[in-house]
Design a protein that fits this description.
Elements: H1 2-5, H2 9-38, H3 42-69, H4 73-82, H5 88-95
Amino acid sequence: MLAQLLTSTLGRLRIIAFTEGVSYLILLFVAVPLKYVFGMPAAVRAFGTVHGALFVLYILWVLISHLEYNWPWRKTLLLLLVSVVPFGNFYADKHWLRSPNA
């Protein structure tokens, strides 16, 4: 199934969205508590860097998908907006990324 996802722009966006969503959850629910509860700021630096790179990649891939699939701006902006909400990318995958015309 992973090989099928890698063959299209939308499939790659779904993989990037999932990975970015997981990195966001790790940052929020693992790294931040490690920093503020246990005094380990290195966790936020490490996961923050990874998440930041994935977030930029997600934004770029949403814009690439917008151009390739002629998505309306409303859908594109919603996909960008939900990425800053915890679990938002998983919602977007289920409701908007299963097919390019959804």
